[in-house]
Each structure stands twice: as C-alpha cells, then as structure tokens.
C-alpha cells in the first residue's frame, strides 16, 4: 500500500503542477489582453492593415473606412482565457495541496470535480456520435449568427470578419452550404466594388480564389463548384478534421480519458491511505494491563488517577 500511495501522490502532484502552470499562463495571457491595451494596439493596427489590403485587392467597399473592432474580440478572448485559467488553476491546486499535504477534504473535492468532468465529457461524446439533434442544435446556433450578424466581405464587425476568415482559410461556405446565407438580415447579397454594386449568390469569401479585381463571377449565378465552395460546409470540414477522424479522435479522447482515470485512481489511493482531517490522532496505548495497586512506569508514587493522597 505504501508503494501505491507514493506512486499515486507522484502522479497526482506532477500532472497537476503541469496543469497549474498552464492555468497560470492562460490567466496571465487573459489579464494581459484585458489590461495591456497599449501593448496590443500594434497588433490591432496590423490586423486592420491586413483587412484593408484584402479589400483593396478586390475593390470591395471603402478600405479607408475600415475600423475593425478588435477591442471587442480581445475583450471576449481575455474573459475566456481568464475563466479557463482559473478553472485549471483551482482544480490543479486542489490536487497538488491535497496530495502533497494529504488533506482529505481537498482530495475529496478534487475527486468529485474530476468525476463530474469525466461524466460530462462521456455524455457529450456519446451525444456527438449518436444523437444527431445535438449536432443540429450547434448548427442552428451558428446559422442564427450568420442570419442576424453577417454583413459581407467589406464589413469589419467581429462576426463577419470571423466567418470571412474561416471560409477563406478553411475552404468552406456557411455551416452546411451557401444556402445558409439566403435569409441574412444585414446583408443584401450585394457587394460594391470600385463604386459598382453587384449582386452575388454567395459571399465572395466562399470563392476558391479570392478575386484580385472587380470580377466577382465566382460568387454569382451560375455558381460553379470549380470556382466556389458552395456546397462544402464549414461544420462538416471541421468535424472531419477533428472528432470525425477516427484515428485522431481515438488518440485524443482515449488519452484524455486514460489520464483522468489515472488521476482519479491516484487521488483515491492517497485518500484511502489516510490523511489529515483536522482531528488530532490518539496515541496508541502500550497494550500493557496494570494489576491492582501497581504503579505505572514513569508515574509518581503516591498518586492515583483522579485522586490525591495526603
């Protein structure tokens, strides 16, 4: 039991120190993005210049009016990083302190949280692979974002820029297909290039080659699969490159699951082997029974328990 306890402590402490480091790094990065605006301004400006260059190449919109709201994106990203960093940090700290100092209450909290996370992950994986409605809900959220927020290639809001970058870099169009853009509320299926407004059937960012002139035929009817990613959805491509790939999915999910099981078992071993629970342990008796009128070794003659002789 002593060897198992030692191995369990080493495993729990070493792995959680690693994740504690990751948590601190993520938390620090989030705080930097949140409060280090004077240091991030250069990166924001470079992003704006890159977008202006892309718009100048296509002639779409007025590139001099581009005002990419990167501050909103950085704020959202900073909050996400801070939350993830705190999540990793708190759980890892429970594991490190609980295993190092053998504090039962911390170990119990650590095991319960790890079990809850593992169960939630198993449920999500099962739903992803067996329940189509789960994937449909995710797609619906993404399509709603396109419908309410997408404004075209010349827009500089976060949603439009994110979708344009995703479709250009990933080689896809919409969530399932170009028809996801049919009922957009803020995009009228038009793009203005060099002062001329043209009607398009898909976003220009769905073109396999981004136009370098005012010719937007790759996004106009008749749509050609050789020129446009019209029927290649971003969700399916992302799925095939991640969890949809059996080898990658088995390696990633299997590795994460095995690590979590080992951590839980290691923490339980340390917990069951005894630890501090805030109560002083009683010293064991010597096991010797004293006969009547016999004086215990080390005691003062003439004194008896609970009574003094004069």
Features:
single chain; 310 residues; mainly alpha; two-stranded antiparallel sheet; 4 strands; elongated; disordered C terminus
Task: Give an account of the 3D structure.
With 310 residues, the chain is mostly helical. 58% of the residues lie in helices and 4% in strands. The chain contains eight helices and four strands, in the order H-H-H-H-H-H-E-E-H-H-E-E. The strands form two sheets. The protein has a two-stranded antiparallel ribbon. It has a two-stranded antiparallel ribbon with strand order 3-4. Strand 3 and strand 4 form a beta hairpin. Helix 1 packs across helix 8, helix 3 packs across helix 4 and helix 4 packs antiparallel against helix 8. The longest helix has 34 residues. The radius of gyration is 32 Å and the shape is elongated.
Low-confidence stretches: 277-283, 305-310
Largest sheet, strands/sense/barrel: 2 strands, antiparallel
**How much is the average pLDDT?**
80
* N-to-C order of helices and strands: HHHHHHEEHHEE
In angstroms, what is the radius of gyration? 32 Å
